[in-house]
Hints:
Mean pLDDT: 90
Protein name: Proteasome alpha-type subunits domain-containing protein
Helix content: 25-40%
CATH superfamily: Aminohydrolase, N-terminal nucleophile (Ntn) domain
Largest sheet: 5 strands, antiparallel
Low-confidence stretches: none
Organism: Paramecium tetraurelia
CATH topology: Glutamine Phosphoribosylpyrophosphate, subunit 1, domain 1
Number of domains: 1
Order of helices and strands: HEEEEHHEEEEHHEEH
Shape: globular
InterPro entries: Ntn_hydrolases_N (IPR029055), Proteasome_alpha (IPR050115), Proteasome_alpha-type (IPR023332), Proteasome_asu_N (IPR000426), Proteasome_sua/b (IPR001353)
Distance between the termini: 45 Å
Strand order of the largest sheet: 8-1-2-9-10
CATH class: Alpha Beta
Strand content: 15-25%
Number of strands: 10
CATH architecture: 4-Layer Sandwich
Domain Proteasome alpha-type subunits: 6-28
Number of helices: 6
Amino acid sequence: MSGSMYDLSVATYSQEGRIYQVEYATKAVENSETVIGVKCKDGVILAGEKQKFSRLLEDNTNKRIYNIDTQTGMAICGKLPDGRNILQRAKAESSQYQDMYAIPASANVLSDRVAQYVHAYTMYSGARPFGSATFIASYNTFDGYELFMIEPSGNKYAYHACTHGKGRAVCKSEFERRSFKDLTCQEALVYIAKMLILAHEEFKEKKYEYEMTWITDNNGRKHQSVPQDLINNAVQQAEQLIEQDQMGE
Length: 249
């Protein structure tokens, strides 16, 4: 086997200090559809692409972005069943925090608790790591807008902009060229759509649909789906930008 038998248990380190099953879980996320999280000057956006592997599927099924509470959302990159398990834990932690302290849990506190849960699955031979990376976006009065990503290892990081999945390289290059902190959420939609289109085109796979949610000053700082007409408009403008870039080369 590729791990020379060290990958039979998540509780076993290799001679180089590696945990192969965690690396395999990370590879599962890297081979997934692209997911993006971006903080703007008036909010935060979560976006992703969903593969339409059958014409029989109804629209808006097999979601990648969910509500944890009214002001907190979670996006899943990687294996959806694993991600939904993490989502249920996040909802339970959020509800418990609300009951105990009578205020919503911040994204920092919530992601810390969820990260510990994810990390626990890398410690025991009877478990396997989650094949999902999760993005948590939130707003609270004390910290403002927050964006965190939790990796299959249980590591969590705070970001201004983050991405995972097959198109991560394309998205990261766009992040480096553009400061989303200076854009409103509505202005940023076009560039997010552009990244998703470019990430998809690089692999020439089946049809996709785009899923976007936001928490902004304009919607009462609640985690809600971006209206479909705004998504359609952003995709059209993004296609025009890509066409202009190609003509300029």
